[in-house]
Design goal:
Length: 262
């Protein structure tokens, strides 16, 4: 059995995670010993009587900035308790966009720590003490907690033993270069809308072809940024296969060399 992946969070609001780590697939993975969770609040390492974790920005400007000394003290205390140095991930709108490929990479890590920001963000010097910075997309949230949960779920479901059907992560959207094909289940007819006949016929080859065609059409319409490189790669592969077929035919049709010829 694989060792449990350890996931920790640096957050001012650990209570936001309570339902998340207990419910659904993530909670089931934790109860099964496939994943474990830990939390550390910067407030426990805050300064002064009020446990301050932030301060006004140098150079002026609106908002408050999380202090680098407080945040790093929080990280170090968390890791001392864990007895490990997880991969440190800073959640910020200025980070690298998170993709399914990132989820697969992080799923292979033995331990992760998500650093969740609040207010106007982090003192930039914290960047020197983390391994990477990630963003969910081109929008801004009030803090990093929701982003941390989204990335956690994307990662946890890829861990061995978490999903009942491991093959499902291959066929789903972003599991390959295409968005996933549409799904249908009972009833066969609903308010005038039916199920494609090919799915009812039992011809698995035809079903597979239909699903590929639908995935391609859906990706081309909704995500041309994904479809263009897919189509180029597909055309290149088809050209390579065609060239190899021509070469094999040439070799089969070539006369054997005459006696004495090399």
């Amino acid at each position: 059995m694989n060792a449990a992946q350890r996931i920790a969070y640096v957050t001012l609001f650990p209570e936001l995670f309570q339902g998340f780590v207990e419910a659904s697939l993530v909670g089931q993975a934790a109860r099964s010993g496939l994943i474990s969770f830990d939390f550390e609040s910067p407030r426990a390492h805050g300064l002064g009587r009020h446990r301050s974790v932030d301060d006004t920005p140098y150079g002026g400007g609106s908002g408050m900035v999380l202090r680098v000394d407080v945040m790093l003290a929080t990280l170090e205390a968390l890791e001392a308790r864990m007895g490990a140095r997880p991969r440190r991930i800073l959640l910020t709108p200025a980070g690298v966009p998170f993709h399914q490929a990132t989820a697969r990479r992080l799923a292979a890590e033995p331990a992760l720590t998500f650093v969740c920001g609040r207010y106007e963000g982090f003192d930039a010097r914290l960047e020197a003490h983390v391994d990477e910075e990630l963003s969910l997309g081109d929008f801004v949230l009030c803090g990093g907690e929701i982003a941390a949960m989204a990335i956690t779920e994307a990662v946890v479901r890829l861990r061995p033993g978490v999903l009942g059907n491991a093959h499902s992560v291959v066929e789903e959207s972003h599991g390959s270069a295409l968005l996933e094909y549409p799904h249908f289940t009972r009833p066969a007819s609903f308010r005038g809308l039916g199920v494609p006949e090919v799915l009812l016929g039992g011809d698995h080859r035809a079903i597979a072809a239909w699903r590929t065609g639908e995935a391609e059409a859906r990706t081309q319409a909704r995500r041309p940024d994904l479809f263009v490189p897919y189509a180029e790669a597909k055309a290149a592969e088809e050209a390579r296969v065609a060239a190899e077929r021509v070469e094999r035919r040439k070799r089969r049709g070539r006369k054997p060399p005459a006696e004495g010829e090399s």
